[in-house]
Design goal:
The complex is a heterodimer. Chain A is α+β, with helices and mostly antiparallel strands. Chain A contains 6 helices and 5 strands, in the order ββαβββααααα. Helix content of chain A is 39%, strand content 15%. In chain A, α3 runs antiparallel to α6. Chain A is globular, with a radius of gyration of 16 Å. By secondary structure, chain B is of the alpha+beta class. Chain B has a 5-stranded antiparallel beta sheet with strand order 4-5-8-6-7. A 4-stranded antiparallel beta sheet of chain B has the order 9-10-11-12, with helices on both faces. A 3-stranded parallel beta sheet of chain B has the order 1-3-2, covered by helices on one side. In chain B, α5 runs antiparallel to α8, α10 runs antiparallel to α12 and α12 crosses α13. Classes of the chains: A alpha+beta, B alpha+beta. The interface between A and B is large, with 40 and 37 residues.
Chain lengths: 165, 290
């Protein structure tokens, strides 16, 4: 199938069906921001910092190097889509309590990464494992330890909540 | 509109985006305008390099079989669009508990970071023939075979080592990795930082019987050139006792340095890479004797 100079792609963003008009060479980060998803942050623009992380079909990906045309028909999840979830509030609380947020620029990317791996790999709870999954998320403020402690705290709380429920 | 200028350059460059249903159609589309066309699987390379001369992008994700993953007749057969994360997860969730699967899991886990492994595909990692690729080094040492489409849209099987030095453009459909060819395998990577691109990576595989090395492969990548088998070194190691080889390690190292022909980059000099080669052999023998 051939697409013209401008093309239309159908996607599901945060559970809502949308039709985007895009250029074939456009990247997902620019499309998302143009359509109002401003939680997706532009950092390095070359797959180095992970600030632009979003979840596409259940996998955390870098929207700065993901072509929008390649997500046709897929489910995209951004921070806007999870901010009312109970688990998000737990994560938010842990991040604040452990001092894991300073300037806050990298946080939306970090949250989406944690959201992905903590749901996909339920047994991840140790510091080294968390470091392994968040290794790409660069933060110039916190020195990472506070973020790792916060994620560990979140996972522990979530497991406790799951047991209670 | 994005905030940086490079996006605008790319937006002007790419005119068409195709979603072929099978690999043959993808190949035919490419052949019409090979100079300005590019196949896209995970899309990392396209996003990273942002090539300015490309006008047509051909998405392989809808091609039949591109996501297949199976273990059959002592081979792992993976569709070219299987991401590295999915490849690892598939191996972990399968009942397969061989040395080769453990080796592949450990090697692929060292590739970049989580988000990039979610995007980078096994076919895309090979097709670009990048010098820094850890995937190529790991697969080359296992004697991997590729199922490709070549000129005139003919299907062909080709060894990875032949693919790397072939000038003709081939479209990879699937990757076939032997499971039980070797019984000892080691992958070593030297990045500047973790996660980071390798200054040098290497992999050793061999079959050991009664203390003798029966079949051996030595591969060095990120030299900074594309990974290469060191045939002369392999000849020196073939049918030798491990203990004897450890004693004559200096000869192996000297031959490896000559054969690997490392180069210098901003990240590391040729001398430094040569030094890493000698370290690699020492580590390999330590692991082998363990």
């Amino acid at each position: 199938m051939k697409e013209g100079k401008k093309m239309l792609v159908d996607v599901v963003v945060n559970g809502k069906r949308q039709r985007w008009e895009i250029h074939p060479g456009e990247f997902l980060i620019d499309t998302l921001r143009r359509y109002g998803y401003k939680s997706v942050r532009k950092g390095c623009d070359d797959a180095s910092c992970c600030n632009c992380t979003v979840i596409v079909d259940g996998r955390a990906v870098l929207s700065c190097v993901k072509l929008t045309a390649s997500v046709k028909g897929k489910n995209i999840l951004t921070l806007e889509g999870i901010k009312k979830e109970k688990e998000f509030l737990l994560l938010e609380e842990s991040l604040l309590k452990k001092g894991a947020v300073q300037c806050g620029y990298c946080i939306s990317g970090l949250i989406m990464t944690v959201w992905d791996f903590s749901h996909r790999y339920k047994d991840v709870s140790e510091k080294d494992e968390i470091k392994y999954y968040t290794a790409g998320n660069l933060c110039r403020c916190t020195g990472y330890n506070s973020q790792i402690f916060a994620i560990k705290d979140f996972i522990k709380k979530r497991q406790e909540t799951e047991k209670r429920d | 509109m994005g905030s940086n200028g490079r996006l605008i350059v790319l937006m002007l460059g790419v005119k068409e985006y195709f979603y072929p249903d099978d690999f043959k159609e993808a190949y035919d589309l490419y052949i019409k305008e090979p100079r300005t066309s590019l196949w896209v699987s995970g899309g990392v390379a396209v996003g990273w390099i942002k090539p300015k001369n490309i006008k047509r992008l051909i998405d392989l994700n809808n091609c039949v079989g591109s996501y297949d993953f199976k273990v059959k007749d002592d081979f792992i057969i993976s569709g070219s669009c299987v991401s590295l994360s999915d490849f690892i997860d598939n191996l972990l969730s399968s009942s397969l508990k061989t040395k080769t699967s453990t080796f592949l899991i450990n090697a692929f886990k060292e590739v970049a970071f989580y988000q990039l492994r979610n995007m980078a595909t096994i076919g895309g990692s090979i097709a670009q023939k990048f010098g820094w690729s850890d995937v190529i080094t790991a697969l080359l040492v296992l004697d991997t075979e590729l199922d490709c489409i070549a000129g005139d849209s003919l299907f062909c099987n080709i060894k990875l080592q032949d693919f790397l030095y072939k000038k003709e453009k081939l479209l990879i459909r699937s990757v076939k990795i032997p499971l039980n060819k070797f019984n000892r395998m080691v992958f070593i990577k030297y990045p500047v930082s973790n996660p980071g691109i390798a200054l040098l990576n290497c992999a050793f595989s061999c079959s050991v019987e009664d203390g003798y090395i029966k079949d051996v492969r030595v591969v060095f990548g990120a030299r900074p050139f594309v990974a290469k088998r060191l045939i002369e070194v392999e000849k020196l190691m073939f049918e030798k006792k491990i203990i004897e080889l450890k004693e004559s390690m200096d000869l192996l190292i000297d031959t490896a340095k000559k054969e690997a022909r490392c180069g210098s980059t901003l990240e590391a000099s040729k001398d430094y890479r040569n030094h890493l080669i000698s370290v690699s052999f020492k580590r390999f023998f330590d692991l082998l004797l363990d």
